[in-house]
């Protein structure tokens, strides 16, 4: 797969999976079909929109490819008619979100690299692309934001995956393999956090010292 094809494919895939998570939040809130459309679209394009705005991309990616809005609408319709079949919508939401992160972070990294951004900015855009749509979804849906869930690897997973991609490309690894390693790293860290309890130490208040 050529670099010109890789990033658009990743964008389409991440928008689809994030849109599914947004529609699941709408189902948990028992919204109507318009609410499903809203949450699916907000979640699907949120991270990529902020990424493109920060990078000065004009127009942003979904304006260039309006078919992405059709994709979010289809995702919302699918969930609207099938969510009741799921035994645990929250469990499915968590795993779909982890998959979406693993796709969106390399997409953000790839777009940032195409603009000639510095490695630090490339990592930051990977994190932004992966986290912002889900953050909007959870805040607007009055859910505890996964990005702020105590002790879990979320932003850390996106940051780690983006760093892996940048380091591999800096040492000459082909771009496609670096982005694949990024995706595996993000998903592995997030899954490890959910299944095995991997986490960073949290701040614990201590008595003041005289």
TrEMBL record:
- Predominant location of this chain? membrane
Q: Where is the Glycine transporter domain?
A: 9-83, 94-169
Membrane-traversing stretches: 6-26, 33-54, 66-86, 93-113, 119-140, 152-171, 177-200
Identify the InterPro entries for this entry: Gly_transporter
Q: According to Swiss-Prot or TrEMBL, what is its membrane topology? A: Multi-pass membrane protein
**Record keywords: Cytoplasm included?**
no
Q: Which PANTHER family is this protein grouped with?
A: INNER MEMBRANE PROTEIN, UPF0126 INNER MEMBRANE PROTEIN YADS-RELATED
* Family, as annotated: Belongs to the UPF0126 family.
Name of this chain's protein: Trimeric intracellular cation channel family protein
List the top taxonomic levels of the source: Bacteria, Pseudomonadati, Pseudomonadota, Alphaproteobacteria, Rhodobacterales
